[in-house]
Amino acid sequence: MSKRRPPARELPELVTLILSLAVVLVLIGGVVYVQVARGDQPPAIAAEALLDEVRVEGERFYLPIEISNSGDQAAEAVRIVVVERVGEREIEHEILIDYLAGHGTAKAIAVLSEDPRRAEVTVEVRSFQQR
Amino acid sequence: MAPRLPDGIRIARAREVTKPVGWARELDTFARAFGGAFLFGIPLLYTQETWNIGTYLDAGQLMTMLVVTFAAVLALAHVSGFRSDAGKHRFASDLEQGIEALAVGAVGSLVVLLALGRLGPGDPPDQWIRFVALQTVPLSVGAALGNAFLAEGGGLGGNDQKRPPSAARALATDVGATAFGAFFLAFNIAPTEEVQLLASEASPGHLVALIVLSLVIGYAIVFEAEFLGIGRRRAQTGPFQRPIIETTLSYCVSLAVAAGMLFLLGRMELGDPIRDLVAQTVVLGLPATVGGAAGRLVV
Question: In chain B, at which end, N or C, are there fewer CB atoms within 10 A of the end residue's CB?
Answer without folding.
Answer: N
